[in-house]
Amino acid sequence: MKVKSNIAVSDNGFVFNPGSGESYTVNPVGLEMLNLLRKGHTHQQIIASIQEQYVAETATIERDLHDFLEMMRQYRLMQHDDE
Known about the structure:
Layout lengths: L1 E2 L4 E2 L4 E4 L4 E4 L2 H11 L4 H11 L4 H17 L3 E2 L4
Antiparallel strand pairs: 1-5, 2-3, 3-4
Helix pairs in contact: 1-2, 2-3
């Protein structure tokens, strides 16, 4: 799955879904994860990038990424790769 291409993301973490008209905000780590997802980075690449920027255990970052992806799915901000 990947981030829907029509999702707008501002530099300060404001996320807008024009398909639903809903908007959200993400914290700096969420913004970094979202931007890396939009660039097509793998989960392992995202984890490595977050580890370079923040002091956190790998397991914590993996859990945070999993939770973030689940939230993105729940808010319908993701699409299947074939869409």
